[in-house]
Amino acid sequence: MYNRKCIVEYDGTDFCGWQAQKEVRTVQAEIEKALATMYKTNLFAIGSGRTDAGVHALNQVFNFRTENYIPPEGFVMGINTILPKDIAVKSAEDVDPEFHSQKSAVSKTYMYRLLTRWTPSALDRNRAWWLKKKPDIELMAELLKAVEGEHDFACFCAAEGMKENTVRTIYHTKVYTDGDYIHFEINGSGFLHMMIRIITGTVVRGAFRKQTPADIHEIIKGKDRRKAGMTAPACGLYLKEVFY
Questions:
Q1: Active site residue 52
Q2: Residue numbers of the domain that contains 166
Q3: Is the same domain home to 177 and 202?
Q4: d(Cα 201, Cα 163) in Å, to the nearest integer?
C-alpha cells in the first residue's frame, strides 16, 4: 500500500468548500473523481482540514492510499489533465504509511487579503475584501498581535461551529502591504469555524475605531461572539501553508 502526499492550490470561488457533500461542488469531490479516473477505483482524499465555501488555498495538503503505483511526476501531470481549471496539484511525494494530512499537521498559516482603494477590482473581486478606505496599518498589526498566545477563542467562532473546547494557540501574526493590498498572516495550532474571518473583521473594525490591543484582550476574555466584529468575506481568505 502506497501513501501519497500532495500539495494542491485552488480558487474557492465556485466551490462549496473542501469537504465532499451531496449535490454541491466541492474540492474534495473533484479530486476524488480525478483519482478514480486515474486509478480505476474509488480513493479517499484526506485533507489537512476543511476550507469554507469561497475560501482559496495556495498550499492545501491531502494524502491518499493506493495499491497501484504511478510515479509522482507522472501522477502530477496526469491528474492536472483531469482536474477542472480551478484546481491544480503542484507536487506529490510518497510518504510514510503513518502520515495523515490532518492528524500529522503541527500548525497552519492562513493569509487574508484586503484591497484598500476607492475603486473596486474587476480581477480580484473574488480574491480580496475591498475596503474603500485604508485603515491604519501599524494599528492593525498591533491589534492582530493581541490574539497571539493560547486563549479561549469562543468570541471568534461562528455559532454553528461552536465546540466544547474553544481553546487554540496562535503562534505568530504578520501584517504587510503590497501596493493597495494589505495582507494578514496568522499561524496557529488550529482554528475554529470562521475564526480567521472573524478576527479579520474585528481587527479592521478596531483600526477604524482607533481601538487598542487591550480592547482585543477584553473581547477575548468576554467569550461573546456579539462583542467581536463582522465575519470578513470568504473571498479574501487563503490557506497558505501546512506545517508537519
A1: yes
A2: 107-243
A3: yes
A4: 21
Whole-model pTM? Answer: 0.95
161 confidence band (pLDDT: 50, 70, 90): low
Of 111, 110, 108, whose CA–CA distance to 48 is shortest? 108
Cell of residue 99, nine digits: 502520515
186-200 burial string, b = 16+ CB within 10 Å, else e? bbbeebbbbbbbbbb
> What is the number of domains present in the chain?
2
**181-226 per-position pLDDT tens digit:** 999 999 999 999 999 999 999 999 999 999 999 999 999 999 999 9
The catalytic position among 11, 14, 52, 224 is 52
Q: Are residues 144 and 210 in the same domain?
A: yes
60 and 129 share one domain: no
Mean of pLDDT values over 157-165? 76
What mean pLDDT do residues 128-152 have? Answer: 97
